[in-house]
Amino acid sequence: MNVLSEDEFENVLSIQNKCTRLNLNENVYGTFAEIGAGQETVRHFFRAGNPKGTIAKTLSAYDKDFSDAIYGLDPQNRYVTVERLKRMIDYEAELIEQRLSRKKYPNKLFFSYANTVATIDWAKKYKGHGWLGIKFQKKPEQDYSEIILHVQFHENNASQQQLSLGIMGVNLIYAAFYQSDDPKILIEKLYDHLSKDKIEIDSINFRGPVFKDVDNRLMSLQLVKEGITEAVMFSPDGNNILPANVLYKKNILTLRGSFRPVTNLNLNMYMSSRKLFLEQEEVDPNKTVIIFEMTLNNLKAEGNDEINEKDFLDRADLLCASGQTVMISNFQEYYKVVEYFAQHTKKELGLVMGVDNLIDIFNEKYYRHLSGGILEAFGKLFFKSLKVYLYPVKDEKTGELITSKNLKVHPRVKELYKFFVDNGKVIDIEDYDEESLEIHPRKVYEMIINGDKEWENMVPGLTARMIKEKNLFIKAKTSQN
User: Fold this and answer.
1) Domains assigned to the chain
2) Which of the residues 128, 365, 392, 449 could staple to 120 if both were Cys, CB 3.0 to 4.6 A apart?
């Protein structure tokens, strides 16, 4: 057999060549466990040269009872979950360590790859989704590192979805061993020979010694920046979480902003709108989630299309420290946020915003790309039980308090605006904080940069302490200049 040189492999990078290179690596050795869609990944390794060089064992526990017997019962009797995937890769990695002596194989780099998926149903009502993961070593006897990701299928045929799954599985295993020095490149390489239209990654987490310097929130941001997915979420602990799991059958209240930094104004908007939202008879507090959302536009500096990662992490640190669930999205228009939430829940929805944001919503220029214009957008925006919780603003010239009652919109949309206000779709926040009305978040950021200590009175105590202790935003500003 002719063995390609390393440079030739890097230039070719077909799926078969990836498998062949791994098969010919005398140290890479592991197991494949695939349930739900068959053995789509490992078949590529069998078809490539020298499969015995890589494959220690392959398993397809298609029957649920067999799967339960091997990996344990799920408390909710579910199989396509991250918990199931973790049990699979942990079990198989432990098993290979038990059965293969390190004395006999001192240089082996063990791995366990697994996926658990559900492809499109026969009625084509549900497109299907799944979890993929690999637990691997890059040095003999090194602690294992992990890459775990969730995918949504967009193809309308189960066989096509299985093919896409197999290709991404090969890309994942290959990337773990040969492209894991740069996780951003790794994410890009997961789509070798695949289209983003076919399979979407909406959550990914890296863990272990290979990724000790990786911040998973940046990896979330990368998914949105590269157009792989439209929205990602991370929890207060900084780990990426699956939006579908967070939003499923939940009441959702969303506050959009730049949060650069979180101010007393943001905090009062959050507290007062939360109180109003939970007062609704239909809203169960135990089935409610509150999301702090930042869009890609929120994250870009003025006059700059690039996102400063340090600046992003500073904001993320402050939100996570205050116990918030954060969503990063590519939804410039509010109606797209509502459409996204409506995919996951039929419960109550609420948007928190200031007067300026509401005026923008009624600006027709944002909807010229829609055949139905602003009427189409508003049909999607005020979906069923959606309500807008409006925080007032004080007119800087007159000192007048502007609410939904005296807000002025363009004459062409005046009647449309009146219709939604009269039907209780816009609710004024009356329990506002007078001092917070004087806070302008952009000016607070400028005060921090310029060393004006007055900003400390405009942000929550925890936020002020963290900004000073960690020197937040100042380094971000320096790196932009």
Assistant:
1) 6-214 (3.90.950.20), 245-480 (3.40.50.620)
2) 128
